[in-house]
Amino acid sequence: MNQHFDSGNTAWLMMATAMVLLMAPGLAFFYGGMVRTSQIIAMLKMCFACVAVVTLIWWAVGYSLAFGPDAEGLGMIGTLDHAFLRGVSLNSATGDVPTVIHSVFHMSFAIVTVALISGSVAGRATMRGWTAFVCAWTLLVYVPMAHWVFDSDGWVAKEVGAVDFSGGTVVELSSGAAGLALAIVAGKREDFERQPIRPHNLPLVVIGLALMWFGWFGFNAGSYLNGPASTTMAFVNTQFAAGAAMIGWAATSYWHNRRVTLLDISMGAVTGLVSMTPLAAGVSPVWATVIGFLAGLTCAFAVSWKYRLGVDDTLDVVGIHGWGGLFGMLMAGLAATGAVTGKKGLFYGGSWGLLGDQLVAVLVLGLFSFTMTAVIGKVVDKTVGLRQPGGIVEHEQAYDTDVASQLQDVTDTLRGPAAPTDDNDPSHLIAQLRTLLASHERN
């Protein structure tokens, strides 16, 4: 075994990778619970398709183009020297960890990023169109951005000097900008602005949030391998920001509607997690709490912009991930302590330079993601088709088509095994249920 490997860093990165991979099913449940009953299967399929497709792309060429030797020294893209992980052996090291786990860690980022975009076209994208989009977007948008920001030879990391450890731009801002572009290309739902989506299963939303929250500790803290102090600070700040953001979103919701729902605090938690992605270990716990609170406060306003702009961003990918990533990047330019990068934000005696660098990264990567997504979306729509034709349901709808038998199961359970089961009329079964429930309550 290579003696340069750090066993502690390697073990933590393996754990962090598994945690981030768990975010994909977490996101599927989170989105699945938020949409209508008839759309849950579609959301699950779209998110899990990303796991399969992106894994193969990353193994074939994605890793090599993102983290391989820089092509021509321009900082724009890597080479194909490591295509199919060629040249990556048991002793290959990236820093003090095995290259293979470094590759899979960043593969998990790519999976989650493109899966996030699915929320912007929830319930109206075809599977073949979505799959084609995932392939093209991963190769043409995510991979170049990962090279620019995460690779030391990338032009954003090397020339611009912006700090983004866990994907404030590459993951969050880019998915928000892509969600905006794809929602525009796909067009509005017929009942947009008339019938807002009501989550059909809030417990499923919370289960998805719990899985994502757990995975986010690996997402943020897994990016810091330069010492236990920075890793633990990223871990703690992630929690503080998420908790504060729940309160911030709740405050906005109460100010608007005089009530706070479970969905409000669930979405608020996500905004806090998003806001910590650029520099979780590089701000103080006090500022992590402030950033999280302000992220929840402002993202709750941002999600309403889609109605002003007339853009049907179904599950608020733009308002949460787009604005949350942008806000987190700019706050890193103000509140960075310099402990991790040596670059101090304006509030810690630094100049305007770091804030300017962060702004440049935000503008360039946001515009790149938006423009490329619009082009890819248009091409996919004109070729294989992106949007489902009106009134046609493409995905199997287990929850809609089996209502009668589900109701029959419930009535059979209440009556007992000897009860007759020949009447499958849902309206009649509902009447039976009411009678049986009333009888159980009296007894």
Write a brief caption for the model.
By secondary structure, this protein is mainly α.
Explain how this protein is built:
This protein has 443 residues and is mostly helical. It has 16 helices and 2 strands. The chain has helices at 7-34, 40-67, 99-117, 127-150, 155-160, 168-186, 202-221, 228-257, 262-275, 285-302, 305-309, 317-335, 353-383, 398-401, 403-415, 426-442; strands at residues 93-94, 97-98. It has a two-stranded antiparallel sheet with strand order 1-2. A hairpin with a 2-residue loop joins strand 1 and strand 2. The chain starts with 6 loop residues before the first helix and ends with a helix. The relative contact order is 0.13.
Distance between the termini: 70 Å
Order of strands, widest sheet:
1-2
Detail the poorly predicted runs: 398-403, 418-424
* 3D shape: globular
Topology, please?
Layout: H1 7-34, H2 40-67, E1 93-94, E2 97-98, H3 99-117, H4 127-150, H5 155-160, H6 168-186, H7 202-221, H8 228-257, H9 262-275, H10 285-302, H11 305-309, H12 317-335, H13 353-383, H14 398-401, H15 403-415, H16 426-442
Antiparallel strand pairs: 1-2
Helix pairs in contact: 1-2, 1-3, 1-7, 2-3, 2-4, 3-4, 3-6, 4-6, 4-13, 6-12, 6-13, 7-8, 7-9, 8-9, 8-10, 9-10, 9-12, 10-12, 12-13, 15-16
